[in-house]
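To fix ideas, we now present one chain and its tokenised fold:
***
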Amino acid sequence: MTIKKPAKCGTLESNDIFLMVTPNEHGIEIDLESSVMQQFGNRIKEVIENKLKDLGINNIKVVAQDKGALDYTIEARVETAIKRGMM
């Protein structure tokens, strides 16, 4: 699967994550900014990357602004952004 256009999902509210996805010719690229970067930055990137792989997405740039979202919220936002980018 590939996305056709830029898309976004989420909010900048507490316990949420805002994502923007765009097509990328150089594999998966994740640019993350988080209020809990030192504690959970690597885990957030891992959750995003695993969800992309589950969806069969290989060429994408993800810009994420996290405000303490839990794993299931991150996964839901990634999936929604991907679906919006495929429309």
